[in-house]
């Protein structure tokens, strides 16, 4: 089993912290592109929308693109994999019978992304999604060329995942390097898992992934994050919150104000609704 497909499983052993009264997932105003991080050029966004409209009309495949600034602005999940699956199912991307939806999620501030696939797609498409991320999204993202990378990546997603699946074609074959890695990396997974278990015995799982980050003062692991909602968001105005970070080993503390996005409602421009599809966690992730 490849480490790239096993890493999301590790995150399941870390319990998430749920911010009180936080909006769990962003709402969508379009079934095609929701650029809340404002990193897609208007011309590129229109080209992407046109491509996804054509894909939906001709093949019945719902593919949607979402950019956000940080997962911290919403109900924080232990991993982007959990967040993407929950978001996918909350929106209901894809046909409810075929479960053929595709979500492209880019989190600019956290420097991570995910292609989440509907449960109807063969899990071999996970490898294709990983190649699309590595070859088309991440090279541009590492140079802060987000609009270019998203457009190229969405085109590759359509060509290598959406169209073959719609036409009943099998996923492209994995490379020799991928097949070799599948057999050589389980030992690394076991080692990493053992280290995680040993560390978890000393720290509360409830501190989620922040418990494994080093304190900037004492350099020990054991940060804990909580947050207070100072002003709840509404449909017409943003809210305000205060995020607290504390070290369990020293006196380090930091308070950071953040903005809670408005509670969004669907619009008629590029809006509409999804088909009620769901995901079982298939797909791939990338970080830069």
Tell me about this structure:
Helices cover 35% and strands 18% of the residues. It is α/β, with parallel strands linked by helices. It has two domains: 3-175, Diaminopimelate Epimerase, Chain A, domain 1 (Roll); 190-260, no CATH class. The strands form two sheets. The protein has a five-stranded mixed β-sheet, with helices on both faces. A three-stranded antiparallel β-sheet has the order 5-6-7, with no helix packed on it. The longest helix has 21 residues, at 146-166. It starts with a helix and ends with a strand. Residues 11-21, 198-207 and 264-269 have low confidence and may be disordered. InterPro entries: TPM_dom. This is TPM domain-containing protein. Residues 264-288 are annotated as: Disordered. Residues 33-158 form the TPM domain.
* Uncertain parts: 11-21, 198-207, 264-269
Oligomer kind: single chain
Instruction: Order the strands across the largest sheet as they lie in space.
Output: 1-2-3-4-8
Shape: globular
The overall pLDDT average reads 81
How many beta-strand runs? 8
Radius of gyration: 20 Å
Indicate the structural class. alpha/beta
CATH architectural group of the largest domain = Roll
Helix content: 25-40%
Distance between the termini: 23 Å
Q: DSSP helix count?
A: 7
């Amino acid at each position: 089993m490849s480490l790239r497909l096993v890493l999301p499983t590790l995150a399941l052993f870390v319990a998430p912290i749920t911010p009180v009264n936080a909006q769990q997932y962003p709402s969508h105003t379009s079934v095609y592109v929701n650029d809340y991080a404002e990193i897609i050029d208007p011309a590129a966004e229109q080209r992407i929308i046109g491509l996804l409209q054509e894909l939906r009309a001709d093949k019945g495949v719902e593919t949607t693109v979402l950019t956000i600034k940080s997962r911290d602005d919403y109900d924080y999940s232990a991993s982007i994999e959990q967040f993407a699956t929950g978001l996918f199912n909350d929106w209901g991307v894809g046909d409810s019978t075929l479960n053929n939806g595709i979500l492209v999620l880019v989190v600019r501030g956290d420097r991570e992304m995910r292609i989440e696939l509907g449960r109807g797609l063969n899990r071999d498409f996970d490898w294709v999604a990983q190649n699309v991320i590595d070859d088309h999204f991440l090279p541009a993202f590492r140079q802060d060329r987000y609009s270019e990378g998203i457009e190229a990546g969405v085109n590759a997603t359509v060509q290598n995942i959406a169209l073959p699946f719609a036409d009943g074609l099998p996923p492209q074959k994995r490379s020799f390097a991928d097949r070799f890695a599948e057999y050589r990396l389980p030992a690394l997974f076991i080692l990493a898992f053992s280290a995680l278990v040993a560390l978890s015995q000393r720290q509360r799982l409830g501190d989620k992934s922040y418990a494994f980050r080093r304190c900037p003062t004492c350099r020990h692991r054991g940060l804990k994050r909580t947050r207070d909602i100072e002003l709840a968001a509404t449909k017409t105005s943003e809210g305000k919150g205060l995020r607290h970070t504390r070290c369990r080993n020293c006196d380090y503390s930091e308070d950071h104000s953040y903005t809670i996005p408005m509670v969004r409602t669907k619009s008629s421009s590029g809006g509409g609704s999804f088909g009620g599809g769901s995901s079982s966690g298939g797909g791939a992730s990338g970080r830069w």
